[in-house]
Write a structure and sequence with these properties.
Rossmann fold; alpha+beta; 13 helices; six-stranded mixed β-sheet; four-stranded antiparallel β-sheet; globular
């Protein structure tokens, strides 16, 4: 591929132009996130005059990724940490003056915005683990003064505590010693057992929030059914009313009326997202939007309190997110901004949904992107391929715009993302099939889809790479150690090399999640569990590594600590096995600073070009704004070998 034809990395992975639009409660103002001097900040404008847009914050540290108005529209809240360590602080900013207040100015504490209510417009419920790092206590915090009032001292060690709109704690969630989920009812100071949910049902069963009547509780549940449904649970009578379900796929998201919290629409996580209107009025709105935006994946991002104005987010596989203002009264749809308008100058590649079978008969749903120049469902001859493995593992890949797919396809590769067992959206049996199957049947699913791509004439069997972050990083380590003959190279990012040390070093506030993890992976407290964890850990199969590996990690990662990569790099060096290792001292579980993100992509691209033979955009200045430290094997980035 000619150098001039490549889509610049910075257009795919640099800061978005704008995203995350939020309507003020009265619908008169818009806020969103866009860069200020290269750092993502909050912007604001009158809804009717985007030309008057002004930055509201001017943080110069880590980017802001989330913001939302308080219920009375007097403030905008956001969260941020300092260096990727997930010790988030909760901030509010006055949209009139721009004054920013840190509501949780406590070092070394993870603060979580948990709840807000129209009944208490000047207060937020915030969870803090300052008393005990394992558990969050609940506080009602005054957004003007920052003064805290204790709502619930979490001595019961609940992983989750749900409140109603009167700020009353109503239920708690914990885990039993065998990995089941246990729910508790809370009435004033009284706590009593509510119900137990099996390990099989636990991941897909969650209370969400109360109706405005404080009696009906919206549930996402798979208890007594194969796929997750949305239901109303009457907390007084115990009666359950099904709102929406699907026989094959999980219900995914709900649209709630801003004031009453009635469910107005439900999305189904099929191969493509499907919205189902629950009320006839919203059903008509969704039909109108889909007619105006054919072939787009759409979602409703924000709504005014009167439910007359909506923010609509829309994207396709070949177009990044576009934000619209939808006026329900007039039926008009007005474009606000696009996340990456510069990509309009380039030809992007379509994405194809794939359904195939695993070797033991499970349906595997995957997404394939081929270079834009390929006509039809397969190339004229097999291509080098990158297998991109999603994290979690309890997450999933979706259809739609993905910068990583477009980047790699543009460089001349086939790109395959597989929803392996354990991925969510496909029913509880599909999740249950992953129990203790790490580096076993979960990895078999990946290999089965690689073999599918080879049989279909899509992938060149001699040039297949594996790449992913978090669990995807673990899968990349597994690919290099358990199936070294399948992949010609691997690129693990913030990955896991030792399942035992992963489970022994989880963040303290994951304590309520620990038993579920032990049930899923193996119990590090037992001899049998330790043996299983060792058997499935790449660190114990370093001798099997025979192909090039490029490893990335954030030094402040609290989920998969940097020791996971340090240890396998040291083991490889002790055995004389070549490895390239890059660490970011100011990042955690992923790379959020744009300079760091661009440098990571540039180095991975050079690595793929060397071993897969695709296109490569020379580094230029793409490493200059990065904090990265190349701790091993930096010689592979010699552009004399990789430039094209």
């Amino acid at each position: 591929m000619a150098e001039t034809s490549l889509i610049p990395r910075k257009l795919l992975f640099g800061n978005p132009h704008a995203f995350g639009a939020q309507l003020s409660p009265d619908g008169q103002w818009l806020s969103w996130i866009a860069p200020v001097d290269g750092v993502l900040n909050i912007w604001i404008a009158p809804t009717h005059d985007m030309g008057a847009a002004q930055p509201l914050t001017r943080t110069t540290g880590r980017p802001i990724w989330w913001q939302e108005w308080t219920v009375d529209g007097r403030f905008i809240m956001f969260v941020n940490d300092e260096n990727g360590d997930e010790n988030d602080h909760v901030f509010i900013v006055d949209p009139k003056s721009g004054h920013v207040r840190d509501l949780t100015p406590i070092k070394g504490v993870n603060a979580q915005v948990l709840h807000w209510s129209r009944k208490f417009p000047n207060r937020l419920v915030i969870g803090l683990n300052d008393r005990d790092a394992r558990w969050h206590d609940l506080y009602s915090v005054d957004v003007e003064t920052g003064e805290r009032e204790l709502l619930w001292l979490n001595t019961q060690e609940f992983a989750t505590i749900g409140l109603d709109w009167d700020f009353r704690p109503r239920y708690g969630r914990s885990t039993t010693d065998d990995g089941r989920t246990r729910f508790w009812q809370i009435e004033n100071e009284t706590v009593r057992h509510w119900m137990d949910v099996s390990h099989l049902d636990g991941w897909l069963t969650w209370p969400i929030l109360f109706h405005a009547d404080n009696r009906r509780l919206l549930m996402k549940t798979c208890v007594g059914r194969e796929t997750a449904a949305f239901t109303w649970l009457d907390t007084e009578s115990g009666e359950e009313t099904v709102i929406a379900e699907h026989p094959r796929f999980d219900a995914h998201r709900v649209m709630l009326h801003p004031a009453t919290h009635d469910v107005e629409a439900v999305s189904i996580a099929a191969t493509r997202m499907e919205w189902v209107g629950v009320t006839s009025a919203v059903e008509e709105d969704l039909a109108l939007l889909q007619a105006k935006l054919p072939d787009f994946e759409i979602s409703i991002g924000s709504r005014s309190d009167d439910n007359r104005r909506w923010i609509v987010e829309a994207h396709t596989a070949q177009q990044a997110a576009t934000s619209f203002l939808y006026d329900r009264d007039s039926g008009t749809l007005t474009e606000l901004f696009r996340a990456r308008p510069e990509l309009d100058a380039y030809r992007l590649a379509p994405m194809r949904s794939i359904e195939a079978r695993s070797r033991d008969g499970l349906d595997l749903f995957s997404y394939l992107t081929l270079p834009a120049s390929v006509q039809g469902e397969r190339p004229a001859k097999p291509l080098p391929m990158v297998l991109l493995v999603h994290g979690g593992p309890w997450g999933r890949d979706f259809y739609g715009y993905r910068g990583d797919h477009q980047w790699l396809a543009d460089r001349g590769y086939a790109v395959l993302s597989v929803n392996y067992r354990g991925s969510t959206g496909f029913g509880k049996s599909f999740v249950a099939a992953s129990e203790k199957q790490h580096a076993a049947r979960m990895h078999d699913d990946l290999i089965d889809m690689v073999n599918w791509a080879i049989r279909e004439g899509i992938a060149d069997p001699a040039k297949i790479a594996i790449h992913g972050g978090s669990y995807g990083g673990y899968a990349s380590f597994v690919g290099a150690t358990f199936t070294p003959d399948v992949f010609c190279c691997s690129v693990p990012v913030v990955g896991i090399s030792n399942l035992q040390t992963l489970l022994e070093s989880m963040p303290p506030y994951w304590a309520g999640f620990a038993e579920f993890m032990y049930r899923s992976y193996g119990d590090p407290r037992t001899e049998e569990g330790r043996a299983l964890l060792a058997e499935r850990s790449p660190i114990h199969k370093v001798d099997q590594i025979a192909k090039p590996m490029l490893i990335f990690h954030g030094a402040n990662d609290v989920r998969c600590k940097v020791a996971e990569s340090d240890s396998i790099v040291a083991a490889m060096q002790a055995k004389g096995i070549p490895v390239t290792y890059v660490v970011y001292p100011d990042e955690g579980h992923g790379f959020h600073k744009p300079g760091n993100r661009i440098a990571y992509i540039a180095m991975a691209e050079a690595f793929f070009a060397r071993h897969l033979g695709g296109g490569f955009e020379p580094f230029g200045d793409d490493l200059d704004q990065s904090s990265h430290e190349i701790r091993a094997g930096g010689e592979i980035f010699d552009l004399a070998d990789t430039g094209r």
